[in-house]
């Protein structure tokens, strides 16, 4: 096989890039179209959901006040007080029948305090409610308790779906409840009107009860189906409540399983012989206790996808061809410019002296930059001497204690001290390594740093001085693992600087106490408080300046200045104030990176 020529390789490369770009364009078009389309469908579904709920509320509310109005008619209380009088009962039957025709309610009936129907608008029908016991219905319980009852169920006598409103009938003078008046609304008419709205809006809908049973739907086969698994316990509860009379309840086949708390979920449901995908948006009707679902079909969105992807591919190919044409034109211009550059080369040769002068100026600028760099290195060299003193002093103290422990044959404690000395030695190596990173213009190695562990490591360094000065230590760290983003070595330097300054400030104090607190809300607040004389007001503004020190504080005056630069590099801030009871308080505020609960 002959090797490919450079020209053939270039063509192959362009073909691969072109095909990769086409694939990416189609993939992006697919994602954007579906994503934007789902947002539009959800927005439209939410609007349709509000319209449907408004219609349902209006359809039910026109019947809600009827029981209350009827309860004011003294005829009802008279019949309940004299149930053995057939003339009064017949008169009431005719009255309820007339009210039923006027209000277009499905049925109106009166039940006594025991839940037995004694008069009804359907007194002439074969499924008349008179004599039937309705004490098991929740609307009876609500009315007998003195409340307006609302309840959906399938009638045990009529086998018709209805929504029931009930209201108590009070004894004259309001001294007792004699029974309740019930108004039943046939929801089949409401369902038909809602279905007409769904057809016009090109969506499907279903309404479920608190047990997730669908009792109203624009699709017949979804009705009387459970959205959630129909367990034995749930089936027993449905049978006991008689909400759906003797009608069988099945499970609605949905993929994935129904989640009541999720909005804009995509479900695949069966309609006839087909399985169609819908986006579900739902809302609870608080008064009725219904959950109304709008199911928007995804099929129109998917059907428009091929044409859109074809359009995107065509636009991409046109743009690609335009780019290739422009590239070829640019190459032709480059050939013309090459001839021109040969002419310009002669001019460049005559300006050689000027170019050399420019190079010398650049070299001078580089030397100035290097001089500034050395100045920074000198400042860091002074600070490294300040930072090494504390670990070296701690190593000496632990070494002296180790000699004492070895002399007393306390090898366990001696080994513990040796481990600490090794850690402090590693600490010194980290500090020196940090100094080297500054010379390389490095900002250090940032990582997720545990704030509590960092404080404990700093306390390890200053602990010998704390013990020597007899300082009472009060440390309170929050539960959990709190982390900040930054260099743990530099952060330890800040804590050591402030703790060391606090110990020095308390040397002349009778009571020596160091308090360390860590609190967190939206940020960390690390508070370090001593019981020393505090900071003079005149020194507050200068305390973080380089080389500033006081008579009470020793050293070069670089610690707090360095600490401020470190904290600011971690997007934080450091402040100083005087406590009311005396002493200085240094507050370090840092952004929270991560919190892991223990």
Automatic annotation (TrEMBL):
Residues 383-594 form the Histidine kinase domain. GO terms for molecular function: ATP binding; phosphorelay sensor kinase activity. Residues 340-374 form a coiled coil. CDD domains: HisKA (cd00082). GO terms for cellular component: plasma membrane. The chain crosses the membrane at residues 307-327. Signal peptide: none annotated. Pfam families: dCache_1, HATPase_c, HisKA. This is C4-dicarboxylate transport sensor protein DctB.
């Amino acid at each position: 096989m002959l090797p490919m020529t450079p020209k053939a390789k270039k063509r192959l490369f362009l073909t691969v890039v072109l095909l990769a770009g086409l694939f990416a364009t189609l993939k992006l078009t697919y994602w954007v179209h579906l994503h934007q389309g789902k947002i539009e469908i959800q927005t439209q579904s939410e609007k349709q959901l509000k319209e449907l709920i408004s219609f349902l509320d209006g359809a039910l509310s026109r019947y809600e006040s009827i029981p209350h109005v009827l309860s004011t008619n003294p005829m009802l209380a008279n019949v309940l007080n004299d149930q053995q009088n057939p003339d009064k009962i017949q008169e009431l039957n005719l009255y309820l029948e007339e009210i039923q025709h006027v209000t277009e309610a499905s049925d109106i009936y009166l039940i006594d305090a025991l839940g037995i129907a004694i008069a009804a608008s359907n007194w002439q029908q074969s499924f008349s409610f008179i004599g039937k016991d309705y004490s098991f219905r929740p609307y009876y319980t609500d009315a007998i308790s003195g409340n307006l009852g609302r309840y959906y169920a399938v009638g045990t006598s009529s086998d018709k779906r209805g929504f029931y409103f009930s209201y108590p009938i009070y004894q004259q003078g309001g001294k007792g409840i004699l029974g309740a008046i019930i108004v039943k609304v046939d929801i089949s008419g409401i369902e038909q009107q809602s279905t007409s709205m769904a057809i016009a809006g090109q969506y499907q809908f279903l309404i479920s009860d608190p047990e997730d049973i669908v009792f109203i739907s624009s699709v017949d086969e979804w009705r009387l189906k459970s959205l959630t698994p129909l367990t034995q316990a749930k089936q027993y509860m449905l049978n006991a409540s008689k909400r759906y009379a003797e009608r069988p309840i099945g499970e609605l086949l949905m993929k994935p399983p129904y989640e009541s708390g999720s909005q804009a979920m995509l479900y695949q449901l069966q309609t006839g012989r087909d399985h169609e995908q819908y986006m579900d948006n739902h809302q609870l009707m608080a008064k009725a206790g219904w959950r109304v679902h709008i199911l928007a079909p995804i099929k129109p969105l998917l059907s428009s996808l091929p044409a859109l992807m074809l359009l995107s591919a065509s636009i991409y190919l046109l743009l690609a061809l335009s780019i290739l044409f422009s590239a070829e034109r640019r190459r032709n211009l480059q050939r013309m410019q090459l001839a021109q550059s040969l002419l310009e080369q002669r001019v460049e040769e005559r300006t050689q002296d000027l170019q050399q002068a420019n190079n010398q100026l650049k070299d001078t600028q580089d030397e100035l930059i290097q001089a500034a760099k050395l100045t920074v290195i000198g400042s860091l060299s002074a600070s490294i001497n300040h930072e090494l003193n504390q670990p070296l002093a701690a190593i000496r103290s632990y070494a002296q204690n180790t000699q004492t422990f070895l002399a007393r044959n306390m090898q366990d404690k001696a080994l513990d001290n040796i481990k600490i000395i090794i850690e402090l030695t590693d600490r010194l190596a980290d500090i020196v390594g940090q100094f080297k990173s500054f010379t390389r213009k490095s900002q250090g190695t940032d990582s997720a740093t545990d704030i509590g562990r960092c404080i404990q490591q700093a306390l390890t360094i200053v602990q010998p001085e704390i013990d020597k000065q007899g300082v009472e230590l009060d440390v309170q760290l929050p539960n959990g693992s709190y982390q900040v983003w930054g260099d743990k070595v530099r952060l330890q330097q800040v804590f050591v600087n402030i703790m060391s300054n606090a110990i020095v400030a308390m040397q002349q104090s009778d009571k020596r106490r160091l308090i360390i607190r860590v609190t967190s809300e939206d940020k960390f607040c690390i508070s370090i408080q001593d019981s020393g004389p505090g900071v003079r007001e005149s020194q507050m503004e200068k305390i973080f300046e380089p080389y500033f020190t006081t008579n009470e504080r020793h050293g070069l005056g670089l610690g707090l200045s360095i600490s401020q630069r470190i904290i600011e590099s971690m997007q934080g801030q450091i402040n100083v104030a005087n406590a009311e009871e005396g002493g200085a308080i240094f507050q370090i505020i840092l952004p929270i990176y991560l919190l892991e609960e223990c």
